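User: Thanks for the earlier help. One more: Cytidine deaminase. Can you show the sequence and predicted structure together?

Assistant: Of course, both are below.
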Amino acid sequence: MQQKLLQTALDFMSLRYPQGSGGVAVLATESGKILTSIAPDVKNDALSVCMEMGACLEAHKINEKVTHSLCIYRESEHSQILFLTPCGICQERLAHWGGHVQVAVSTSDNILLFKPLRELMPYHWSIVNGDIL
């Protein structure tokens, strides 16, 4: 699934951002669907959203559980593809589907590495409710 997500992200990036900078998120669902999204350019920074948001909303819309998340970014069509750890807000969005969701994380050597969300959030606030993320 990890390689399938990467290839989908690369293909979508080439299509959506043939030139210049760009970022793409891809999420996999329990049934095997691959959902893609971007962070749209906005004229007012207060309206900006993360790359994953569109795909997260799509998963909710089709009532599917997310199992994997991958975000990639590049400065230009000639730049290296970077793997991005979900920001804190997106980690909270993904937590809806539990701590087992596999998320791609940033590494110093920029390798494709997935970790369970619970490893990124070992002290998640839900523990006070007796939940184990």
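User: Great, one quick takeaway?

Assistant: Residues 1-129 form a domain with the Cytidine Deaminase; domain 2 fold (CATH 3.40.140.10).
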